[in-house]
Write a structure and sequence with these properties.
single chain; about 475 residues; mainly alpha; Glycosyltransferase; 3-stranded antiparallel beta sheet; two-stranded antiparallel ribbon; 14 helices; about 45% helix; disordered C terminus
Length: about 475
């Protein structure tokens, strides 16, 4: 991609204002038109949200979007919607033992509400705070219980089973570290206490070691920063067997949304670690060791994104998609969501942009100004494209906010409009949510408001709130 080094955050102010106006309209439209009896909305078909049975991972994005809308606009309608839906609908997600998505469902809802309370943005009542804290404590423990031990550590297994490590699960480490920071004690058989921070760090290390490649000769396709969606292990002896992919083209190509999950996940956890005392990390190898492998994974994945994405910052759905070669010199021109061969994935761009911005800010804060500025400008470049047509949904009847998102290209689940040979023109809950989340992140920077993180003030002692 071509990084625009002249962009400043404030240059996107007009686009952000327009995005939030459209966003509010879309949230109201879904609230009015969508039949919740059908299940959680997942993606749009001809502009209307529909469900898709695979795993329950998107409902938190639906109600979390309303909470983010309030955060950005102070419109209490969205706060009440998000709060009431969280209390009345989200409880089953707290205790869901069959998924790896607690970060998506519960941090997006209970976590955002608790954060707003701690920031003084919404009234602080003891009962409500206790509900949100308890939800986050239990969610982190339940997520940590999906544990597969491997040589030198372990990981949170995906919904596929104990053999399966998904790259996206790094974003559910948020559930574990919040539960840990809130002082929760997770216990197993025989009352054995299980350290949630240790499990989170071991999962991050497994993701860095097996999901991310560094050009160190692991296989023929090992290049700096590429990722595998799934890493497969022998669950009996803990040995790694092979890379694989569920939603990408293959285990030896890079599914770009999986890449983006890693970019964002490592960057946000580096930010969280920076708030912890050195003594807390000493038992797990110490700050220097932990931050070293996380910085390596974050920079490698962000570098890969920059090097393997078209000039405007919008990636195709997989960097090894079989028909990309038919597009010619596609990396040296803007992405084309209406081409005849391979879809783009705007949701990967929204998630990846947040990772680039966060890594850039983290590096600048820790003294690596030049590299940090490069990543930050790359994030701005993506958003300058993403928050405008043809990616921003301006049709008042379309329920989605971010167009040209892809869910599962190999399974053929995404809608292909008449006259097109590829899926395009549709939205997803995760794409819309992460467009809002990165927009809020940038808006707070522009207005010199508190820096937006998933953990902002959540773990402070009650007496200092």
């Amino acid at each position: 991609m071509q990084i625009d080094h002249s962009l400043h955050p404030a240059d996107l102010s007009t686009k952000l204002d327009r995005l939030w106006t459209l966003s509010g309209q879309k949230i109201r439209l879904i609230d009015t038109e969508y039949d919740e009896k059908k299940g959680s909305p997942v993606f749009t078909v001809q502009g209307k949200y529909t469900t898709r049975g695979w795993t329950e991972w998107t409902q938190g994005f639906q109600f979390g979007s309303a909470i983010l809308q309030f955060d950005a606009t102070d419109d209490s309608y969205f706060l009440e919607m998000g709060r009431q839906k969280t209390i009345s609908v989200m409880a089953p997600h707290i205790s869901h033992i069959g998924v790896h998505d607690h970060g998506f469902n519960n941090v997006s809802t209970y976590g955002n509400l608790l954060r707003l309370m701690q920031e003084g943005r919404i009234p602080a009542t003891d009962w409500e705070r206790n509900v949100y804290e308890l939800a986050l404590k239990i969610s982190g423990a339940v997520q940590a219980s999906r544990w597969t031990p491997i040589r030198n550590g372990g990981f949170i297994s995906s919904f596929n089973g104990p053999h399966s490590l998904f790259v996206d699960t790094i974003r559910s480490c948020r559930s574990l570290v919040l539960s840990h920071a809130l002082g929760h004690v997770f216990q197993g058989e025989g009352d054995v206490k299980i350290n949630l921070l240790e499990r989170a760090l071991q999962h991050m290390k497994a993701t860095a070691d097996y999901s991310v490649f560094y050009g160190e000769g692991r296989d023929t396709y090992d290049i700096w920063g590429r990722t595998a969606h799934e890493s497969v292990f022998n669950a009996k002896d803990g040995n790694f067997r092979c890379p694989n992919s569920q939603q990408g083209y293959s285990g030896f190509t890079t599914w770009t949304r999986g890449l983006a999950w890693a970019m964002c996940g490592f960057a946000e956890e580096l930010e969280w670690l920076a708030t912890r005392d050195d003594a807390e990390l000493e038992a797990f190898g110490g700050r220097e060791r932990i931050e070293a492998f996380m910085r390596k994974a974050a920079t490698a994945t962000c570098d890969f994104y920059i090097d393997h994405t078209p000039t405007d910052g919008i990636p195709y759905w997989d960097t090894g998609a079989p028909n990309l070669h038919r597009l010619g010199d596609y990396l040296n021109r803007p992405a084309d969501p209406y081409n005849a061969f391979e879809p783009v994935d705007s949701s990967a761009a929204a998630i990846g942009a947040q990772g680039l911005l966060r890594l850039g800010n983290y590096l600048k804060q820790t003294g690596n100004t030049e590299a940090g500025q490069r990543y930050f400008q790359a994030g701005l470049t993506i958003l300058n494209t993403l928050f405008d047509e043809p990616y921003l949904s301006t049709d008042p009847s379309h329920q989605g906010l971010l167009l040209h998102s892809i869910y599962h290209q190999p399974n053929g689940w995404d809608y292909v409009p008449a006259g097109s040979k590829i899926a395009n023109g549709e939205s997803s809950m995760w794409g819309d949510y992460h467009a809002r989340e990165v927009a809020l992140y940038l808006q707070r920077i522009i207005h010199n408001q508190p820096y937006y993180t998933f953990f902002n003030r959540i773990a402070e002692p009650h007496q200092t709130r």
